[in-house]
Specification:
The protein is mostly helical and 299 residues long. The chain has eleven helices and four strands; from the N terminus they run αααβαβββααααααα. It is elongated. The two termini are 16 Å apart.
């Protein structure tokens, strides 16, 4: 494999800047209406990080259970095994466990806290929809989520967003500041309401940025950007024709999937996934640069 290169769109830098934005929101609301002490802030952060760590540790089982996925053998899914084994070997990474979800909604996702404890799942719908070349593009994308530690990234973003929401709610109900009369009550309420929204928007932006990264790095891993672009076109139509039910347990894992699984994916600002047209355009631009477009960066 060629030497690692930075991605064309600097997605790693964007992710770091977005995390900085989340911390700025948290520290900003604490500076404006906090109690003048770091004690409560440390407590909130500790509770948020502990609860998120539990979810992160069990991320694979939670996601697989939500999709009612079952492990499959090589005899059942020879194409999946052949593709994933080849790509894992090429990346010098352990092969993840493979699962299939019994749903007609075409989608795929990867989960697990690290490459040694990873799982890749395809729905029955995506296995019927895509040809083997397109499936290879999708599986390359999912493997890069594992190798780039995107489950960890999403978990940390979720933890910070959760802490911001908790701090904002606490301040709205209990007030704060060295002199509680020094803070305009209306301003305090607006901060408490708007800060969690800002945190959620930044969290979603991080998710969208990591999707771009997985697209680009997955295309480098497979050496075939157009295969993934073709798969994404089919998935955009397929997820609208056969969406998943919009239930809380599926909403909690929808950000893991390669395509937004719900009908009417929503406005771009509040979506966990970038617009398909933009993802396809980036992949086609990669293909236009020819075979020397670079290697894969593992984080």
């Amino acid at each position: 494999m060629s030497a690692p290169l930075s991605t064309r769109h600097n997605n790693g830098l964007k992710t770091a800047l977005l995390f900085g934005g989340m911390w700025a929101v948290l520290l900003g609301i604490w500076a404006l209406v906090g109690d003048g002490s770091a004690t409560l802030l440390v407590v909130f952060c500790a509770v948020g990080l502990f609860s998120t760590a539990l979810g992160y540790w069990n991320s694979a089982s939670i996601a697989l259970r939500s999709m009612q996925a079952r492990p499959v053998t090589e005899q059942e899914q020879p194409a999946m095994y052949r593709i994933v084994r080849e790509l894992s070997t090429q990346a010098n990474q352990p092969m993840p466990k493979l699962y299939v979800s019994p749903t007609a909604a075409p989608n795929a996702f990867a989960t697990g806290r690290n490459p040694q404890n990873a799982a890749v799942c395809c729905t029955e719908g995506i296995l019927r929809l895509l040809d083997e070349r397109e499936l290879r593009g999708v599986l390359g994308h999912e493997l890069m989520h594992v190798y780039n530690r995107d489950i960890l990234t999403a978990s940390v973003a979720s933890a910070i967003a959760g802490v911001i929401s908790t701090v904002a709610q606490f301040l709205m109900f209990f007030g704060g500041g060295r002199d509680r009369n020094s803070v305009n009550p209306l301003a305090g309420i607006l901060i408490a309401l708007l800060a969690p929204i800002a945190a959620s928007i930044i969290q979603l932006a991080i998710s969208r940025t990591r999707e771009f990264d997985a697209d680009e790095d997955g295309a480098r891993l497979t050496g075939d950007p157009l295969a993934l672009a073709s798969a994404l076109r089919k998935l955009e139509d397929g997820t609208q024709r056969a969406p998943l039910p919009d239930t809380p347990n599926l909403e909690n894992v929808s950000h893991l999937m390669i395509a937004n699984p719900f009908r009417g994916a929503g406005k771009r600002l509040m979506s966990t996934h970038p617009p398909m047209a933009e993802r396809v355009a980036r992949l086609e631009a990669m293909a236009g640069r020819g075979p020397g477009y670079g290697g894969v960066t593992y984080y």
